[in-house]
Amino acid sequence: QEVLVAPEDYSAASGEVLVLTGLVSFFISMIWNREIFESNPLKDRLGYNNVCVTWDEPPALYVAPIIFAPAIFLSVRYAVLDYIRAAVDPNLTKWRKNFVHICNLLYVISVWIFPMIFVVPPTVSAVWHTISFGQYIFFRYVMIVGNYVEVDVVSRASWIFLIIYGFISVGFLTVLYINYINFDTKQGPTLPWAINMLFDYSWFVCLVLTEFLLPKQVPLKVTYEQSGSGGEEDPPVA
Fold this sequence. Notes:
With 238 residues, the protein is mainly alpha-helical. 69% of the residues lie in helices and 3% in strands. It has a two-stranded antiparallel ribbon. Helix 6 (122-149) runs antiparallel to helix 7 and helix 7 runs antiparallel to helix 9. The protein starts with a strand and ends in a 15-residue tail after the last strand.
């Protein structure tokens, strides 16, 4: 049986799972732990409640890792399929194939590290908690760039998305760094909370838009067939 598979559908779905994790965690915290939104280590540094706050304390902290778990599978599945697609594409030069392979490898490692955000809450270490998330922001964008390297024709809308997504990703990491590095002396957000929040929530919007604005690529044809009959050796072919 032959099946057409678009690897980028898996990467887009993994981002949507992250958004879903935040939404479910928000409603859980609003119902059973509303106090977390009034005061928390991230709000002290950024001046507002970012998405991570929704799952930083029980009971949402117990549910969020379960909801996020499929994102790990989806990300690894994307990386494997995209690795194969790049490897069998006769039109890709060697350096482009290697670039795509490296992007996918870094992305998978990043996704494996991401769950540390549930293990190290900001009450233990706001810095390491945020690093777990920040590295994902960076390497997810690296993965997105890899998609552009794979294709020869990119629409104007896709180029605009890449530029905006890159600006938001770098901007988000920058405001996090500025606010965190100065917190010990300033004891509050260095930048206006509205700027911090703009980059934060814009990044999550980009997760949802990824599925629609990535460059169009040729799907991978996957063939499934049984290798034998019930574990017995196949009869020799005359």
